[in-house]
Records
---
Amino acid sequence: MRPRRVDWREWAPLTLLTLAVLAGAGLWFGGRRGVAELVWAAVTLVALLPAAWTTVRQLWRRQFGVDVIAVLALVGALLVREYLAGAVIAVMVATGQGLEDYAQRRASRDLRALLERAPRQARRRTPDGDIEVVPLDRVAVGDRLVVGPGDVVPVDGTVEEAATLDESVVTGESQLVTRAAGEQVASGVVNAGAGFGLRARKSAAESTYAGIVRLAEEATARKAPMVRLADRYAAAFVPFTLLVAGVAWAVSGEFLRAVAVLVVATPCPLLLATPIAIVSGLSRVARRGVLVRDGGSLELLGRARTLLMDKTGTLTAGRPRAAETVVAPGGDRDEVLRLAASVEQLSPHVLAAALVRQARAQGLRLTEPAEVTEEPGHGVTGRVDGRLVRVGQLAGEPPEWAHRVRERAELAGRSTVWVSDDHGPLGAILLEDPVRPDARRTVRRLRESGLDRLVMVTGDRPRTARQVAQTVGVDDVWAQCTPQQKVARVQEESGRAVTVMVGDGVNDAPALAEAHVGVAMGATGATASADVADAVLTVDRLDRLADAVEIARYARRIAVQSATVGMALAVVAMVAAAVGKLPPVAGAFLQEGIDVLVIVNALRALRGGLRHRDVPPRTRELLDRYAGEHDGVREVLDRLRDTADLMATRPDAPESLPALREVHRRLVDEVLPHEAAEERHLYPALAGPLGSGEATSTMSRAHVEIGRLVDRIGGHLAQHPDGRLRRDELPDLLAALYGLDAVLRLHMAQEEEDYFSLNPEDGQTPAGR
């Protein structure tokens, strides 16, 4: 966005009034005091007329504000012929208004940027291959569009070829991202590379950016409750000021003292510092990828004590992934996944997308299926390489190994997709909705920011809900809740404290509307939730909610501080004026200084308040690198678990020992080098962001334990080069295998939650994590 040019007309009233006051001073010192007083009187009158008109209109609308004191002070200055004091008051009022306008322009520039970048038209391909420019409202779902270099993506869509995008306006992430053909992109992002084709998924009115723009328009148009709070201050402050002025006049018999009290009590710009702080907070949370609907919502967010969160899409990634593939005895894991993904390529089901995504991530070659049929609720059937494959529910009586798979899936809270052919089940793919890597860290930060009670509300099964709740560390969990029950829970909590509700689905919309502050995970495209929410996370990172809470509390604290300190200083000055120690002219200059002080203090809300530490670019690169390597480690872990199960159930099978030797080889060649590299490079780099090198000491201890268990498995193999294991060795070997599986999984989860979630550029939860 190009820099904004200064419009001198915005500062013209203050400039002209200041020049007039200085001209009067020049005349005064030049010996023409009568003319100087006329100039100052004119300045006072020029300021009085619009202020009086504004005050009359407010009183007509039954609004009682602090402008009343400014009007009385100007009138009093004219009556007692303290024209210089009146002129200084006029400059003070203009200065306050000018500073308010400047602060609001600066604080809301990010919100304005969203409005300014809103696309108005799109390039659309015609059926005969030409390109036409059409108004945005004429773009329909399915249209093929062209996005040129530097263009703003007009609607939500699917890219037709690789594209390099700047998503900072929508997500807050500064790093350019590359989207491959077939990936979805949100409207509002900027094409930072060559032109590309886009297939529209939504109309302009339903797209992501349109919803963000609507929120931005409302955020800039509404008035913060802190402004109304200032008016409530006026209800007590104005009578108090008049009382002090009246007492000073009555006791001393000097009307001049009453005018002096009114002069120092003129707090028009003073109480404008509170909305400046709130609007500054709105701007900052917008830069962090959280668009708050208005200042009132931000102020409530800063007072919140209870947070209710949906599970799916909020604490979890919101899209299932293939966590484990279990095969029939003697089966091939990769072949089972390949067959399932090949059949599911044509299915629109969310589970089908998870299978296809996992197979492609593992580099498996998919085959185009034939004779595909889909029966809702039962699964998909098709031929792959001439072989009939069924993916979905398991028909008939399952074999013994399938019973164990079902029990494992139930205990782990995972969904099961069975893969079968004409001869029976070939294997099962266990799907899970993984907890967001940043969820536990975010929950801790939310507690540190002042939220006393964190509750998970979900429609999922109690066992799965409890597992997620224990993982992220919330205080309570309500499972199997219908949308109506979610609303009832929100109402119950809202009766005790200011409550925030976070969700992403259509079923969350009523609960979001009921909460004091509803927050929608807008990056997932949940339009219904975003439309009723008071705030939208435009980036798919839950930790940005913690940022928003911290910024909201900081902005509210600065607002209250500015009002309190400014009012206290004004009261001290009023007392001094009442006893005759502060004449009107000196009081006017003093009040000017007080007002400027508190407004500048309010601008502090544009910075500070966040608790997290910045991560250096080199450390970000290391976090990206080792987070990506976790996919490979997980694949070895799956082999490890299968081998352990094989050794536990069929230790004498011909394939048992070869499988054990292969998994040990991969542990030595792939997993241990990964752990050693983390120890040498990543952990020392994290000492700064985490505060000290001791922060990674427990992870280093886990590396030692992982190496010990791998050596223990290798020791069993080295003792028996003939390929035979004694029965009495099996318990110790199985303890090492299952122990290594548990330690490695816990170690990886801790790294992802405590370390990898530090990376601010990691805007998405990868499918493989």
Note: Residues 8-109+219-281+553-606 form one domain.
---
Amino acid sequence: MNQRADPRPVSLNFLAGGGEMGALMRAHDWSATSLGPPEGWPQALRTTVRLMLNTGHPMFIFWGLDRACLYNDAYSASIGPERHPVALGQPGRAVWEEIWPVIGPQIEQAQSGKGATWNVDHLIPITRHGRVEEVYWTYSYSPIDDDTAPNGVGGVLVVCSETTRQVRAARELANQRDQLAQMFEQAPTFMAMLRGPEHRFELANPGYVKLVGGRSVLGLTVAEALPEAVEQGYIVLLDQVYASGEAYVAREDRFEIQPPDGGPPIERYANFVYQPIKDASGQVGGIFIEGSDVTDQVRSRLQLEALNAELAATVGQLEENERSQSLQLRLANALLPLESPEAIIAAASELLGRELGASRVFYAEVDDERGTLFIRQNWTAPGFASLAGQTEVLDDYGPDMIAQLRAGVIVANEDIALDPRTAAHTEAYARIGVRADLITPLVRARKLEAILVIHDAGVHPWQERELQLVRAMAERTWSAVEAARAQAELREERDRSRRIFDSMKEGFALLDADWTLRHVNTAAAHISRRPAGALIGQSHWKAFPELVGTEVESLYRQVQRERTAASVEHHHVFPSGSQAWIEIRAVPALRDELAVFFRDISERKRSEKQLQESARRKDEFLAMLAHELRNPLAPIGAAAQLLQLVKLDEVRVRDTSRIIARQVEHMTGLVNDLLDVSRVTTGLVTLDAVPVDMRQVVSHAVEQVTPLLQSRRHELSLQLAPDTFMVTGDEKRLVQVLANILNNAAKYTPEGGKLRLDMGIADGEIVVGVADNGIGMDAALVPHVFDLFSQAERTPDRSSGGLGLGLALVKSLVELHRGSVSAASDGPGKGSRFTIWLPRREETVEQADVAPPNADPDDACAPLRIMVVDDNVDAAATLAMLLEALGHTALVEYSPTRALARARRERPDVCLLDIGLPEMDGNELARRLRAQPETARALLVAITGYGQEHDRSTALAAGFDHHMVKPVDTARLGAILAARAGQRGG
């Protein structure tokens, strides 16, 4: 070594307080080393050794040409008994021969006077504790000045940190993040497909859309979708790849994205490849883009490089920066075990505040758009007020100062009152007790994100050393905060993804390449009827042996082979014997894994089957309705032609008219049945609830069906118990119920058959039963006999015709009366029985003697002047002929306007008006007739095809006296006209 002897005795006190290594150095025999006795060590070496021995951070020194090794207690604990304490004073290469290729070049560089250098997270296999270990280290190498050395550098101080745990933890978190991200997306990287020489986007995955700020790029060229890519040279690169057919690979490529809201460009870094896509002939047809956003990694590395450079510079000036270096080391030690950003900021703020003797220290998050900063927490000296939780306005502290911060310049105010940047804002500073401050901006991507603020209650002339210290502390602390937040976000993303999958109602399972179930959510365990603990880690085919050889196995193998998602609907039989329909979707995942989603669709399958059955019954009903409506039309048409072609005598004319009337009556009954069912099933029917004697209901119902019974020569027997059969209900509707059941029994009982109606009381209810010895019912029909459009098979002569509505109407009307109805049969050919239960009413009522007779439409009455208004010429003509046959004078008009004019001239006694008229409807015509003096007292009758209750209410409100539905009930019309003629005659 090139050393200069110092004749003055030098005390070894600089080794005092150095722990075990200090004691070891004092007792060491240095004669066998190139260092010589410590009394002869240069001042720079003694100063560095003192600092090294009194810190808890692993450090060692290589001194002199032999690189003699000195180290502290923290370092001795990390190198193992194989080297400690033998390494003390020995040449560095001899001690670390196995890793000298890694550290040797940096040692040479630092000692040759070329400046500090470093290794970051470097993998170094070393032998310690009797075995070879693969560990990661971060080293910084800083030269130690020595004016006795030829180049002014006597040795190298190495500050090291073992980062094995952090590196492995970071990799583990990254692996978990990638695996969970794959569950959502098919690729963990950004990808896009460009077509043609103009580079038009054909595909872009969510990762790429996120990379470009959420823009919609599909169908656009790169130049159209990303204008900033043109000026940054990416179009030229794409053109080169397209023309040459050679891929372009970029590592940590820097680019800028323009936000959609027009804000400042965002700086990003990415690893990517432009891969040309060639057809079979070798022609390039497009370019595949694949890559990953490495902004965080690059920024972290750049930040780490900056921190290491600062550390190297600080170590290079140990004598004058010893205090700052010690603080940096204490900060590193303090932050090493901390994970939360809040704890990191609190520790760094306290350390810095005490070091500088400040009154208050805090990191504030800046909202530059709103011009505010938020102080989440702060450190304060005893007795100094806290600002934690407050939001401050930036401009309150001087716009000029804030402008400098936005530019990344540290602002140092020795005296707020005297500094021209803040003099006008002393009141705001005085309010929080500040006389001097030091503010360090933290700028990312040209955006002010946060500031580190040092407050002092008195005047403070800030030194350059303090500015450098604060800047280093700010950057290092904020980098640690960002790293902690990134780690927290990774953990939160992993936990959130797991919670999402576990909370899904759809079953989810992850299968690896050898079919092992790696993950199963709660829904999957529920649907498969197996506990999740019994599935995870098991082979899929062992857990579900019933799926081997099914379409499910074919699906899985197809997706695994083709790497394309597919699905199947599988009818599954569980080991217990229960069955279910399961929809299964398989999606390719990472490393030949399969993500399987499945759900129970049994209910949907049942609904589909029910819909198919309903559609079939509806089609059958429509065919039946068409047939039933054509049947009466045939004799009506034939009768009409007969009246036109042949001159008939009066008897034949009367017979023909009766045929037409009967068929019209039959068609009217069909339409009324349809309307009745519609009104009842949609809740539009209201009951006239009064006390009703069920004996009278039976009497009226039997009266209605007697003609049918007689025509089919049926024998009906009645068995009524001698009790009071009172209910609360609508007599007309109850008669309709019983008549429909009796009609149904008659239709499905061959001629000469027997019917029986019995009525009694059981459990407080009136029970009415109708039985027959007819064709009976199949067991499959009985549960559906009251369904709409449901009907037993018809006989060839169609004697049991109908629309299948009668029993559906029966069920609805009985339930409206708070009762119930059932059907039973012993099978085909064994007859049927229908039973009705109705709540019994206890009190009796007096029956009316005899209803007043209706007016006979055939009775002669005084002639009336009657105006008929209908745009249907045939309908108007036939109605006019009917009126004239009754002895009245008929005035026919087809237009509402002409009808108004004629009514003023001829003053009709009665107006029969169609509702669906042109120009104005019948309701409006009625209102105008009521408004004319000539027809204000005329009798107005609505003749219409609209028969709903609201149609009747609307007509009466418009001024009509009566509402009649087509085809007109001639008996009722005759009675109305007779009553009007009687009033006029009176």
Note: The first helix runs from residue 19 to 27.
